[in-house]
Amino acid sequence: MSIMSAPLERRPWLRPKYLLFAAIGLMLAYVILHDESFLVHPRDPLWQHYGPFKWWLLPHGIAGACALLLGPMQFSDRLRARFKQLHRVVGRIYVAVCSSQRHLACISSTSRNARAIPDLSVLLQQPTRRCGWLLPGLRWSSFSKEGLRSIANG
Questions:
Q1: Residue 72 DSSP one-character state
Q2: Domain limits of the chain?
Q3: Cβ contacts of residue 100 below 8 Å, gap of 6+?
Q4: What 3-state DSSP class applies to 87?
């Protein structure tokens, strides 16, 4: 009795997910070059607007970049199966940056100067902007906390 094995399927090197990643990378490069170029040019006039709260934006930007890069890693079955400890550490970092993002976004969008934490009057004057930025932050944090809760419950 001979056992015939099925031939291994060769995957093409150009898979749809690679095209998606390339498209996202091109979009990122376009946005950085055309909209965010002031970040690398300290004499840009746009810094006058961002100047008062630029030190609140720095941790907000770093935490947001970490969350956007680490978030998709949590959905990788291969990563979860092969590197369980890395998956857990990345998940904890992700939850931490999601939690800090909400607060940093609220502070940076309401601060009038770099040393002041916004007072209640500023928060009440602009309810549309508060809801516009606070709701996605609350959703992001609540989904992260729900993930932690489901992990803890098994």
A1: G
A2: 49-153
A3: 59, 63
A4: helix
pLDDT in tens, 27-74: 988 988 888 787 778 788 888 777 777 777 778 888 888 888 888 888
Chain segment 25-39, per-residue pLDDT in tens: 899 889 888 887 877
Where does 83-126 have alpha helices with state H?
A: 84-110, 120-125
The verdict on pTM exceeding 0.70 is no
The two three-digit tokens of residue 131, written as one number: 């809801």
The residue count for the chain? 154
C-alpha angle 76-82-84 in degrees, rounded to nearest 5 = 80
User: What count of other Cβ atoms lies within 10 Å of the Cβ of residue 61?
Assistant: 14
Instruction: Round to whole Å and give the CA distance between 138 and 47.
Output: 29
